[in-house]
Amino acid sequence: MKMWTGVLTTVMAASLLAGCASNNTGNGNAANTGNAGGDSGSGEAKSVTLKMFVAQPRLKEHYDKYIAQFTAKEKAEKNIDVTVQIEMPPADNAAQILKTRLASNDAPDIFALHAINDIPSYYKAGYLEDLSDQPFVGKLLDSVKPAVTTTDGKVVALPLETLSWGYLYNKKMFADLSLTPPTTLTEMKAVVDKLNANNITPFLLSYKESWIPQLFLPLAAGALINTEDAEKDFITRMSNDEGSFSEMKSMFDVIDLVNANGTDKALEVGGDDGAAAFAAGKAAMWLQGPWYAETILKSNPDLDFGVAALPINDNANATMINLSASTSLAVSKTSKNKEVALDFLNYVLDDTDSNAFFQALKFNPIATVHTFDSYPWVNDATEYVKAGKSYQDPAIPQAVKDEVGKDLQSYYAGQMSQDEVFKALDKAWKSFNKVNK
């Protein structure tokens, strides 16, 4: 997810590093002392500065609170004064900043990465500490653990977000017009027509951040790969320079429908503004995942919204929910503070405190220690899963997802044609292959 490259990326990285937020919950003048091991109870406390990188600035207050609890626990139990510096850049350029940091041997002690998109390449590059023997691993649900496990069986991250997603819809608007989530593209067109006839904008468009229009790709590709015989091996063929995105041409049917029936000034509206607009009832549907639930409900606690599968064609079997594990926490292999970093990861799944943390973030249960009830929108998605209408998020390289986000911004603005988008995506995947083979 990036919008700026080259010099601008470097400038952004420098400015963000200089101004990263600091939670002074330990010794404000603490020095980095390496693998600290203070004695609890008596004696001089060890001091550690722990650096974290998590691209979720909208959730900062919840991280700050949990970090404060952790530093108090670390002081009480191990007599270690921990100062946490948490850097929270926006999602659109976070991946590029993190890659630059890792490649220049300036890795944060703990950093967030996308389990499906990033773990294979980051592990291959030697950036990820092996966490297989950590206590939290035994708490992970069997359905979640594979997403953070490498092909050679090592657990290298702690999952935070597991996702069941398609698009969000305003349940009250649908109920008032006796509408139900459509199962085909033709049915979606009928829903759009009825909403328009009642002066309700069908779709909220928020394309200012390129990662948002990028969401069309995993939804369309995942559905086609899992329902069209000709596309079953699409990922493998693309990885061998044998396929082309022109095979996915039908994905523009739903893209064009959404773009033609959405809110104005899409390229001026980002994720947070989109969440506020959706919460305020500015549109009936938003191509977005439930990871924005906390932000939406903060704007309008009474909003009744659901998750539904996006139809991409007239094959009802292809209207499926995307299952994924995204934001996950890893420990840098080069960290000089591994003991404290590992303590924090294990605290994220603390038997007592983890429930409240995950509930505050509006994340799904991912461990045996999580006893809180699933959210209504999770139950919506689960109905699709129970009916066999779901698929695992396709393993599309992050570089390709970054490219499609920018290209679909340009397509919306009338600056690129469909064929030009396909050619750009083919080129991006081939470039990825050259570097990673």
In short:
Keywords: Signal, Transport. With 437 residues, this protein is α/β, with parallel strands linked by helices.
Commentary on this structure:
The protein is an alpha/beta fold and 437 residues long. It folds into two domains: 6-161 and 326-363, Periplasmic binding protein-like II (D-Maltodextrin-Binding Protein, domain 2, 3-Layer(aba) Sandwich), CATH 3.40.190; 164-323 and 381-436, 3-Layer(aba) Sandwich (D-Maltodextrin-Binding Protein, domain 2), CATH 3.40.190. The protein is built from 16 helices and 13 strands. It has helices at 6-18, 60-78, 91-103, 115-124, 171-176, 185-197, 216-227, 234-239, 251-260, 271-279, 293-299, 338-348, 354-361, 376-386, 398-412, 418-436, and strands at residues 21-23, 46-53, 80-87, 110-114, 158-159, 162-165, 167-170, 203-204, 285-286, 305-308, 321-325, 327-331, 390-392. A six-stranded mixed beta sheet has the order 1-3-2-4-12-5. Helix 2 (60-78) links the parallel strand 2 and strand 3 (80-87). The two termini are 22 Å apart. Keywords: Signal, Transport. This is Raffinose/stachyose/melibiose transport system substrate-binding protein. It comes from Paenibacillus phyllosphaerae.
